[in-house]
């Protein structure tokens, strides 16, 4: 969410001089995102020896409002919610879930009255409208986050304020700094089935709080757009049933985007992202203390995406190719999921049709191939799948 705040802050600085009078705009964006996959094993790979398959339908709705109630103040408001249907049909790992997702609400206020500086303050809220505890075989509806849009379906009430500043160095060059802190509320997840009474209990999760520092640099000319950003996140101890259990390792993210408009109807965009996390700290039952793990159970993830768009009349089409590599096996203690090392290649494209000014329809399709690294614990795994998206947006 902090990346969204920084992007919005850069947009504020770039557009601040467009109007000296208060004005408001409202936009709504609705999508239907369908993912379908099949592979030599299900998820997790060690849970079944049979070929695996799964599907997920995710319907997010995003609404945004932007305006200037005062000449020196710009407000940006966002709300996002939706619903999801998720199913894994692997023999021995089958499970289905249909639920609403959590609702995200955020707001950013940017002050434009100081020459050379544009301070902003933002607030992000995660409202727990989704589902956290999945009982019985429904837990198998959680699938690999490198394959489907949603690997989890909810958490607790999160409150995340952020403060920062935009520094317009030149008309085309803007530097942004942000600092945020997120208080995360508790929630319950399913525990193992109790064989004594055949009832499934729950575990109270008290997630760690997160402090995040971000910096970004944006440059825009007539044909060239460049954006680079970096972030660092530090998390405190997570408690399970009021017992200190683990601390997720510090996380680093670097990303860069370059776009070039060859003509008024043709442009190229390339995006690269790197994320990495240090060793977690885990509970040592003998010492009853949280200590660094003996080996790093996190991974570095590299993502690259190249897109070429062509516009003609009301139509815009954009073929694309993307590549992802997870360099080693990792384990997510939050969802109790083992995520294997893998490479993922996807290719496809999108089409958008402008019905009128501010109103458009869009569709996209991607075919992807995944190869997971073979280890003693996980067999060689190959996955093939599709992602299809239908949607529309409207500005008022």
Provide structural commentary.
- With 396 residues, this protein is mostly beta strands.
- The chain has one domain (2-395): Porin.
- Helix content is 4%, strand content 64%.
- A 16-stranded antiparallel β-barrel has the order 1-2-3-5-6-7-8-11-12-15-16-19-20-23-24-25. A six-stranded antiparallel β-sheet has the order 9-10-13-14-17-18, with no helix packed on it. Strands 21-22 form a two-stranded antiparallel sheet.
- The radius of gyration is 22 Å and the shape is globular.
| CATH topology-level fold name | Porin
Strand content: over 45%
Using DSSP, what is the number of strands?
25
The Cα radius of gyration reads 22 Å
Class of secondary structure makeup: mainly beta
**In CATH's first tier, which class applies?**
Mainly Beta
Strand order of the largest sheet: 1-2-3-5-6-7-8-11-12-15-16-19-20-23-24-25
Number of helices: 1
Which regions are unreliable across 5 or more consecutive residues at pLDDT < 50?
1-21
Number of domains: 1
State the end-to-end distance. Answer: 25 Å
Instruction: Provide the succession of SSEs.
Output: HEEEEEEEEEEEEEEEEEEEEEEEEE
CATH architecture: Beta Barrel
Report the principal-axis shape: globular
Mean pLDDT across all amino acids: 88
- Largest sheet composition: 16 strands, antiparallel, barrel
> Portion of residues in helices?
under 10%
Write a concise keyword list for the protein shown above.
mainly beta; single chain; 396 residues; 16-stranded antiparallel beta barrel; six-stranded antiparallel β-sheet; Porin
